[in-house]
Amino acid sequence: MNNKTVSTTTRAGWTLATFALAAALLAGSNAAHALPPGSVYGGLQAASISSDGDAEINDIKLGVLLSRVGIVVNDMLRLEGRFGVGVDDDTQVLIEDGVPIQLTTSIQSIFGAYALFTLPIDPVMLYAVAGYTTAQVEVTLETARPFPPFRLRERARENYSTFGVGIDYAFADRVSIGVEYLRYSSLDDAISLGFTVGF
């Protein structure tokens, strides 16, 4: 098992442990009930996306701000769509044949459609996520001074089958906060914090 596999496994393990601890602490508190079936909800989510690097590139860390819109089908199922933009790029300096090259990675846009399989334990809701994510990723390579200027910019559409787990806490009437872990691919995962408001 290499160091990157250990790092990814450790991140996922700590995330699941956090969910379990939060559920144990929150389950006994008094708060508003979760949204009833038929409710429509919206919210915002701030996510930190990590992508494992390789021998030449360090792990890539990106920040994304997402909007969320969904419907509560029943007590066990929600359908949700998300749209977001990148708010924090990743920049690294690589050395190629003695020339320093700045590598910048950014997310231009990200869309997702998901099913949330929920287990409400008022005021807490545990859930599993499964769905599809597509992201517009931009990579820029440019030489650093004092070398002659050179820039190469490429954009690509990345598509992922997505799964994960999360926990929401309803702390007020129709208002919840939550934390979530998503796995986009064998190399990419995300941890996010956010809130939702029911209508």
Question: How would you describe this protein?
Answer:
The chain has one helix at 3-26, and strands spanning 40-51, 60-74, 77-88, 90-96, 99-121, 124-143, 151-172, 175-183, 188-198. The protein is mainly beta. It has one domain (3-198): Porin (Beta Barrel), CATH 2.40.160. Strand 6 and strand 7 form a beta hairpin. It is elongated and about 60 Å long.
Biggest sheet overview: 8 strands, antiparallel, barrel
CATH fold topology? Porin
* Number of separate domains: 1
Indicate the percent of residues in helices. Answer: 10-25%
How many DSSP H or I helices?
Answer: 1
Give start-end ranges of low-pLDDT stretches: 1-10, 23-31
Quaternary structure classification: single chain
Our estimate of the beta-strand percent is over 45%
DSSP strand tally: 9
Provide the structure class: mainly beta
Mean pLDDT: 84
Characteristic key phrases:
single chain; 199 residues; mainly beta; Porin; elongated; disordered N terminus
Summarize the structure.
The protein is built from one helix and nine strands; from the N terminus they run H-E-E-E-E-E-E-E-E-E.
Topology summary:
Layout: H1 3-26, E1 40-51, E2 60-74, E3 77-88, E4 90-96, E5 99-121, E6 124-143, E7 151-172, E8 175-183, E9 188-198
Antiparallel strand pairs: 1-2, 1-9, 2-3, 3-5, 4-5, 5-6, 6-7, 7-8, 8-9
